[in-house]
UniProtKB/TrEMBL annotation:
This is Endonuclease/exonuclease/phosphatase family protein. The lineage of its organism: Bacteria, Pseudomonadati, Pseudomonadota, Alphaproteobacteria, Rhodobacterales. PANTHER family: PROTEIN CBG08683, PTHR41349. Residues 1-19 form the signal peptide. One of its GO terms (molecular function) is endonuclease activity. Gene3D superfamilies: Endonuclease/exonuclease/phosphatase. Keywords: Endonuclease, Hydrolase, Nuclease, Signal. Residues 26-306 form the Endonuclease/exonuclease/phosphatase domain. Pfam families: Exo_endo_phos (PF03372).
Length: 315
């Protein structure tokens, strides 16, 4: 063996190996953290503590405005995210820009939070010297394509019958927001991991499958474009990676209120944790909600009109 080859081997052996990092990332639409029902934040804090996350993407940190309709629902009051972070001893970043992918969003984290992306959709988080990014979004809910397909009135949108029509309306509703997200993700180049959390107000292409239609879970097969676009960009849907069967585990996050058999709503999975990282392993993922069959982690009383999702991720 030549001397320079021995030197290369010695150098490689001396170089420190990159340690694996494990994080618990949560998405939680907190519905005003109790404020919409005149409650304090204690019930929301109990949910967070039960899920034991490290980083959370929050939506609806402010209250629903007095004139809230399907067409327009401006938030009112101040963000509750700083109070949640203070109670936990965590860091906080309120996403205060106004655009089509934010509705009272915030990130709270055990770890220090760094600069935000240009459109305020993501922030860097320093995890023991490693830079990870979390992008936290809240897409428009009107028109809402499951309601359009099922003939449920919600705003002025017309009813539709096919998966292709659903994809077309979904793109009209959310493509511009996804373009903003993809532009902001340039800020995360070189990060150890990138996460996307959010209330997408659109289901998953991994859920509205032929098997789910045959089981009666959903009415038609739809290649929902928002989740599909993230999958095509190399992101993993953490819950569906841990629980790949949408019939056995439909994982409804919308909604813990109301009867699943009711004809004036449709229960579905619209809240997500996506992740992208070299060597990514989804250790586990869970739906956090009320005491009942749809929750993997149950918390009573349940304070939101959405269930949350938490994923344990190693990279």
């Amino acid at each position: 063996m030549r001397p320079h080859a021995l030197l290369l081997i010695a150098t490689a052996l001396a170089a420190p190996a990159h340690a694996e990092t494990t994080l618990r990332v949560m998405n939680y639409n907190i519905w005003g953290a109790g404020g919409n029902e005149g409650k304090g934040i204690d019930e929301t804090l109990a949910v967070i503590r039960a899920a034991n996350p490290d980083i959370i993407g929050l939506q609806e940190t402010r209250l629903e405005g007095a004139d809230c309709t399907a067409d327009a629902c401006p938030p009112g009051g101040d963000s509750i995210a700083p109070a949640l972070a203070q109670a936990l001893g965590w860091h906080v970043y309120d996403q205060t820009q106004e655009n089509g992918v934010l509705w009272a969003n915030a990130v709270i984290s055990r770890y220090p939070i760094g600069p935000a992306s240009a459109n305020d959709l993501g922030v860097a988080v320093d995890v023991d010297g490693q830079s990870v990014w979390i992008f936290n979004i809240h897409h428009d809910d009107e028109p809402y394509q499951p309601y359009q397909l099922l003939g449920i009135e919600y705003g002025p949108a017309p009813f539709i019958t096919t998966g292709a029509e659903a994809v077309d309306y979904a793109n009209q509703t959310r493509k511009a927001g996804m373009d903003l997200l993809m532009a902001d993700m340039a800020a995360a180049e070189g990060a150890a991991a990138v996460f996307v959390t959010g209330d997408f107000n659109e289901p998953s292409h991994l859920d509205w499958t032929a098997a789910a239609v045959a089981a009666g879970t959903h009415p038609v097969v739809v290649e929902w474009p928002t989740t599909k676009r993230l999958a095509d960009a190399g992101f993993t849907d953490a819950y569906r990676a841990a629980h790949p069967d949408p019939v056995a585990k439909p994982a409804f996050t919308w909604t813990p209120t109301g009867d699943e058999a009711a004809t004036d709503d449709h229960h579905d999975r619209i809240d997500f944790v996506f992740a992208r990282a070299p060597g990514l392993v989804v250790v586990d993922a869970a739906i956090v909600g009320e005491d009942g069959p749809r929750s993997d982690i149950a918390v009573t009383p349940w304070p939101s009109d959405h269930r949350a999702v938490v994923a344990e991720l190693r990279f």
